[in-house]
């Protein structure tokens, strides 16, 4: 075991990076935001830019979080499904097949009327339970998430993730059949299509949906699948680094990554994964947990949600609310890193490969003269890192690494 130094706190503001926004007079939401705490942190330490996975690559939150934690997604990533499923509390082992899923509304011809079943406003756990079964030597487990979201896990031998989605990804189109992308996946595709036909029959007759129809609501009569992935076998976080890690997030995917790595996944009151998430509770929990865990990662999802909505003013406000929530860490002997997982420009409403602003603040560290934490000002900082370098750089700043060589 290594001799431990000071605790480390990695704050990932999901979708933080942006481009000039018309509503903000041609500057980014981060530039426009009142952010005294983040500016104070960067002045105490180092600033710069970070590329998510590699320069110019447009990444998802799943691949970028794996990389931020030091696990190369090129080697280990097979799909988002396993992380979503684990984040919802399903137990997975290496080789299990998992999917992201939506409870949706389809007509008698299989045309999707609403991919979200009218933004399902009821707990769908009884629907999920009804879809758990054994079939052809495989076990099918479904877990309901927030609103229309769910996850499906298939356990058994001979499974492959070389298959297509059933989700057409837009309303007005027909639900797709699962297709095998190679011959090794033929069994998986066949049994999934058989399972989904049975699921359709169960959902169509279920009392939950009969009640919704009676109340003039859209029935959740279709389970759309996407993001198939075989659960990877990853070295546990503590075994890899020699110290405990903890994860604080409101979204199942990030919780799932933490769970798969054997990190402590904290449940925080008010951590919803939305723009209205309780950021102060997250930071208070992080401060408390650093008494037990040498490393804590905190995900802030609201910045990404605002970016996808194309709402630059809301993104600015989310940043300002989070900056206020940083108060509990400002006087701690902690190595703090704040960055994003990818950029989500408001005018683009989707992820981009733009580099991300980065700050590192640690007691006694060098200062490079960076004064403001934003996409443009950080160009003047000294750091130029890939996301896979972040945790190692934090380790050496805080005295939590081992010397390489004699």
Spatially, the strands of the biggest sheet line up as 10-9-11-1-12-13-2-14
Q: Helical residue percent?
A: 25-40%
Q: First CA to last CA: what distance?
A: 17 Å
Tell me which oligomeric state these chains represent: single chain
Mind telling me which CATH architecture of the largest domain this is? 3-Layer(aba) Sandwich
- CATH-defined fold name of the largest domain: Alkaline Phosphatase, subunit A
* Poorly predicted parts: none
H/E element sequence:
EHHEHHHEEHEEEHHEHEHEHEHHEEEH
**What count of domains describes the coordinates?**
2
Mean pLDDT: 95
CATH class categorisation of the largest domain: Alpha Beta
Tally the beta strands. 14
According to CATH, the homologous superfamily of the largest domain is: Alkaline Phosphatase, subunit A
Radius of gyration: 22 Å
**How much strand content do the residues show?**
15-25%
Number of alpha- plus pi-helical segments:
14
Main β-sheet: number of strands, strand sense, barrel status?
8 strands, mixed
The class by helix and strand makeup works out as alpha/beta
- What is the general shape? globular
């Amino acid at each position: 075991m290594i001799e431990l130094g000071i605790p480390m706190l990695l704050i990932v503001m999901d979708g933080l990076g942006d481009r000039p926004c018309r509503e903000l007079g041609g500057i980014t939401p981060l530039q426009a935001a009142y952010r005294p705490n983040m500016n104070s942190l960067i002045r105490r330490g180092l600033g710069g830019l970070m590329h998510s996975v590699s320069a110019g690559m447009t990444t998802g939150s799943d691949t970028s979080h794996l990389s931020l934690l030091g696990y190369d997604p090129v080697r280990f990533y097979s799909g988002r499904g396993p992380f979503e499923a684990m984040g919802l509390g399903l137990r997975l082992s290496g080789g299990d097949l998992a999917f992201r899923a939506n409870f949706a509304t389809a007509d008698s011809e299989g045309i999707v009327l609403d991919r979200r079943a009218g933004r399902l406003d009821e707990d769908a756990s009884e629907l999920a339970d009804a879809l758990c079964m054994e079939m052809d030597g495989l076990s099918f487990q479904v877990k309901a998430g927030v609103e229309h979201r769910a996850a499906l896990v298939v356990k058994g031998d001979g499974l492959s993730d070389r298959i297509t989605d059933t989700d057409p990804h837009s309303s007005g189109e027909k639900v797709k059949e699962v297709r095998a992308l190679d011959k090794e996946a033929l069994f998986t595709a066949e049994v999934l299509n058989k399972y989904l036909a049975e699921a359709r029959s169960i959902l169509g007759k279920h009392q939950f949906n009969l009640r919704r129809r009676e109340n003039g609501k859209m029935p959740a009569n279709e389970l759309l699948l996407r993001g198939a992935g075989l659960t990877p076998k990853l070295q546990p976080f503590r075994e890899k680094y020699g110290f405990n890690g903890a994860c604080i997030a409101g979204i199942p995917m990030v919780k799932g990554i933490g769970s798969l790595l054997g990190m402590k996944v904290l449940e925080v009151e008010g951590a919803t994964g939305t723009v209205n998430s309780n950021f102060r509770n997250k930071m208070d929990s992080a401060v408390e947990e650093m008494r037990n865990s040498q490393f804590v990662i905190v995900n802030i999802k609201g910045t990404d949600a605002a970016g996808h909505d194309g709402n630059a003013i809301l993104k600015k406000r989310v940043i300002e609310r989070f900056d206020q929530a940083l108060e509990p860490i400002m006087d701690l002997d902690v190595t703090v890193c704040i960055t994003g997982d990818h950029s989500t420009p408001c005018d683009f409403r989707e992820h981009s490969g733009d580099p991300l602003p980065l700050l590192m603040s640690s007691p006694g560290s060098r200062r490079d003269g960076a004064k403001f934490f934003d996409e443009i000002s950080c160009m003047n900082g000294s750091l130029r890192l890939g996301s896979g370098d972040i945790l190692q750089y934090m380790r050496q700043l805080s005295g939590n690494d081992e010397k390489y060589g004699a």
